[in-house]
Amino acid sequence: MESQKVTRRQMMGGLLGAAAAPQVMRSQAPGKPPNVVFIMCDQMRGDSMTFMGHPVARTPNLDRLAQRGISFDNYYSNNPVCTPARKSIFSGRYPHEHGSLTNRHGEMLSMPGTMIDYFKQRGYRTGYVGKNHAFGEDAMKAVDFYKHRDREPFRKYNQYVPPEWHSDTYWPSEETHAWLNTADALQFISGAKDGNPFFLTVSYFDPHPPYMAPPEYTSKYRSDQMRIPEFIDPAKLSGRLVDFCRAMKADKIKDAALTETMRYYYAAIEGMVDYQVGRIMDKLVSQGLMENTIIVFTADHGDFMGQHRLVRKGMFLYDCLLHVPMIWSVPGLRGGRRTKAMAQGIDYFPTLIELTGGKARPELPGRSLKQTFGGAAEQAGRTMYTSASYGELSREIVEKNKDSNAEADTPLHTLAEENSSSPTNKYSMVRTHEWKFLLSQSRPAELYRMNDGWIERENVVEKAEFAGVRREMEQKLRAFWKW
Description:
The chain has 15 helices and 15 strands. By secondary structure, the protein is α/β, with parallel strands linked by helices. It has a single domain, classed as 3-Layer(aba) Sandwich (Alkaline Phosphatase, subunit A). Residues 1-29 have low confidence and may be disordered.
């Protein structure tokens, strides 16, 4: 593991600090379990924070949280869309194990055996506010404090949403669901009692499209400040990505429209996510709870946000959709560090069990990250896996950008995403720092040399010089999930 110390100035400026000696966790006061606040947003890329060096993003509160703890440069979701990714986090299971491979597949979680149920059984007061998309509504009756808000009325996918999928919010900040979700979270925290630990999940819909934020945030960002990611021809990756880009008319999107969408995306991150995290942190401080509370920040999955001239998401296992934030603030942890250690969604459950004094559950496939927090060396050659599925787009959608069986006013992006999300073909990935291998049921395999980065540049699966790598990676993947 590479662990680095970051000064406050460097953290706020997005610069990487010099390497530091391994850190250790100080012991906590015995007999007083820590509280847990688990914050998750929706569709936020892992590189979209100031301290990660992003040239546009403004995330002072996430920077502050990272300064208190440790952030993972290489954290990856176990699925590129909401429901499977969230179910993996709360169940500690891979998507093919919990039964949802796309948003259109499988049943929602029941409560027994999940992360929330575990803490309830431990005697924790439980709370959940915001977006769900993981548990059935009946299951949430077991939660002590449950305030469900999902898509706001002005976020509905209909003919009134601009084709660029962005807009200012139509009413004041404090009346948006991000603000209201936070208000509920603060109410829950206010009810904390000494000696009665709590486990609170705060789930934000943002920056999920349509990308929207209050004008006091959107006015901070200008289109001419945005930098469209380097274009990589989809044909260098896969034929299915080529089809998806054609169906979405990616080649028709003008630079001005794309950069305008990008500025709304980063405004939504600042106003609807980062600012809300700051409100929660300030409440914990004012209540005298910060020093005995574990805070986790993450996202369920990422967003193309300009890569291949696309925005939104799709059933693809590329890093723009899987690489998301992971920040931990843990009592006794010396903070301000970034690590290159690899982590995945199924690691949250075992890590929180160990951090709160519980015993490991061998049936869970993830691993606890606690030793990584303390500066322990990363396990050599750790590999991560993802299971998913996809549907092939019809030639009518690819060639004519329409579906004669769909309602006439169905947006193009909805046609493409819904058809792609059909759980028809199995799809899986194995990932290391250096290599990434994808296996698709109806398309050729893909192999990428990642070079410790987050961008797939060329599929080298057919190159003879990498035949040995392909064999090794494919053996691992087929052992992971037998089709």
